[in-house]
């Protein structure tokens, strides 16, 4: 089986406010890239290869997914023309790669595929006899069982092991995060380990005194929770986030590399660096006050914690070198 | 930042426009403390206030303390969503009396008190 993912610029506009440190296509849902959910879905559906078709080449996607080896799948990339229709994309994929294998699954648009990883014990594509089309407001999912069905896709079938959720604005994004937190944590492979029921912790999470974590909560890698912080219920905290003392965080999403200042209260908010989105009032504000919110510096591939350790290591090395140099000089003077 | 004051019905209405951040708050605080010495019933008309940061918020809290100590009150009117969000995030929203307009804030002052003050003025 092969999959074509078609990413169009128009479908990505809504996620621009969430992309302060990356491309809008690399948006996170519950600390996992949206595209990675699709890749997981394809892996579970026994797909062998995926071609990601982009209107504009997005290097961040290739940097992360590479050739798909990590997922045990072959991933290739292709640029398409703006507004190119699905028929011509299929033709081009057929001509240039000459390896359109069937069944073929086409993701056209940006949406979320709800599935449960435990529902994939059998190959759900085996019994398909006609082409299928399932749609939501922000895209279509086409399933073509054989080449004969390629131009004959009409039926819409229910009872498939997945459903689609539209993703065309920040409301959809926020609702989806909360839905997964609330009811679908077990359905996906989410980064981190389960500490207790409905609490997923990333690596190297540091907790201060009297930290209260109320499920459901997802914490990313290298999260620092200072003293008397209260996280949850319904909170998603991205990687390399620092929540300073006495913060109350509920029904909110804090994206990666964000510092949240002392004593703040976030309720129904999305925080991305110093940009705060109020989901109730539908208002976005940039708070240029580093004591309240700021973007934490992250060198790609290194967490803040690693950077501090590296710096401390180098400092220690320099001090030892200085001490040895002085010691050797003194010895030389004596002899 | 621009600060304008006028007195209506015995209540001091101070109009703020621009940004209350960086260097501005100390100047604002000094000026407002001087006004409060003369009249501790204050309405801050924030309809022109574009931005408020933690230092600006500190200045507002200091002025509120001063008005309360003098037996008066300080009310905020016409806050823009950005400033309102800062108050909400810092949990100071409940500390201040916040109104949508100066008229509403004016109506919230004790009418008898403002009447007497108006007559004595």
Describe the structure.
The complex is a heterodimer of chains A (335) and B (121). Chain A is an alpha/beta fold and 335 residues long. Chain A contains six helices and 28 strands. Chain A has helices at residues 9-12, 34-44, 59-65, 86-97, 170-184, 304-334; strands at 2-7, 28-29, 32-33, 49-54, 74-79, 104-109, 111-115, 131-136, 139-144, 153-155, 162-166, 193-196, 199-201, 206-207, 212-213, 217-219, 224-225, 230-231, 235-237, 242-243, 248-250, 252-254, 258-260, 265-267, 269-272, 275-278, 283-286, 293-295. In chain A, the strands form six sheets. An eight-stranded mixed beta sheet of chain A has the order 12-13-16-19-22-25-26-27, covered by helices on one side. Chain A has a seven-stranded mixed beta sheet with strand order 5-4-1-6-9-8-10. A five-stranded mixed beta sheet of chain A has the order 14-17-20-23-28, with no helix packed on it. In chain A, strand 25 and strand 26 form a beta hairpin. The longest helix of chain A has 31 residues, at 304-334. In chain B, a hairpin with a 2-residue loop joins strand 1 and strand 2. Chain B is α/β, with parallel strands linked by helices. In chain B, strands 1-2-3-4-5 form a five-stranded mixed beta sheet. Chain B has five helices and five strands. Chain B has helices spanning 24-38, 54-69, 81-89, 102-108, 111-120, and strands at residues 2-8, 11-20, 41-52, 73-77, 97-99.
């Amino acid at each position: 089986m092969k999959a074509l993912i078609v990413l169009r610029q128009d479908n990505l506009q809504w996620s621009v406010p969430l992309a302060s440190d990356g491309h809008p296509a690399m948006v996170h849902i519950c600390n996992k890239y949206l595209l990675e959910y699709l890749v997981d879905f394809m892996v579970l559906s026994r797909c062998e290869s995926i071609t990601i078709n982009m209107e504009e080449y997005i290097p961040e996607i290739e940097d992360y997914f590479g050739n798909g080896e990590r997922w045990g799948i072959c991933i290739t990339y292709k640029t398409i023309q703006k507004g190119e229709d699905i028929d011509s994309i299929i033709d081009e994929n057929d001509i240039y790669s000459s390896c359109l294998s069937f069944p073929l699954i086409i993701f056209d648009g940006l949406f979320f595929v709800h599935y449960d990883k435990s529902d994939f014990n059998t190959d759900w594509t085996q019994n398909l006899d006609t082409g299928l089309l399932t749609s939501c407001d922000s895209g279509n999912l086409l399933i073509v069982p054989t080449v004969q069905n390629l131009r004959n896709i009409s039926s819409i079938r229910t009872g498939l092991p997945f459903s689609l959720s539209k993703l065309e604005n920040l409301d959809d994004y926020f609702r989806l995060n909360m839905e997964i937190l609330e009811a679908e944590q077990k359905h996906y492979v989410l980064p981190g380990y389960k500490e207790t029921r409905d609490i997923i912790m990333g690596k190297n999470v540091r907790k201060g005194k009297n930290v209260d974590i109320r499920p459901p909560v997802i914490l990313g890698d290298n999260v620092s929770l200072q003293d008397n912080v209260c996280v949850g219920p319904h909170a998603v905290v991205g990687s390399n986030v620092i929540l300073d003392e006495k913060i109350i965080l509920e029904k909110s999403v804090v994206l990666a590399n964000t510092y949240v200042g002392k004593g703040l209260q976030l309720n129904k908010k999305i925080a991305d660096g110093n940009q705060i989105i109020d989901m109730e009032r539908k208002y976005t504000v940039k708070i240029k006050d580093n004591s309240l919110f700021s973007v934490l510096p992250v060198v790609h591939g290194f967490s803040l914690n690693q950077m501090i350790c590296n710096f401390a290591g180098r400092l220690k090395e320099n001090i030892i070198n200085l001490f040895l140099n002085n010691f050797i000089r003194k010895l030389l003077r004596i002899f | 930042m621009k600060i304008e004051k006028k007195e209506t019905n015995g209540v001091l209405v101070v109009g703020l426009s621009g940004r209350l951040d960086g260097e501005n708050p100390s100047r604002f605080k000094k000026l407002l403390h001087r006004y409060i010495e003369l009249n501790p019933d204050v309405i801050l008309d924030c309809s022109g206030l574009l931005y408020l940061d933690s230092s600006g918020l500190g200045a507002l809290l200091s002025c509120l303390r001063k008005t309360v100590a003098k037996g008066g009150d300080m009310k905020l009117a016409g806050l823009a969503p950005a400033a309102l969000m800062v108050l909400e995030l810092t949990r100071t929203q409940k500390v201040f009396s916040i109104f949508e307009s100066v008229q509403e804030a004016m109506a919230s002052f004790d009418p008898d008190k403002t009447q007497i003050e108006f007559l004595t003025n």
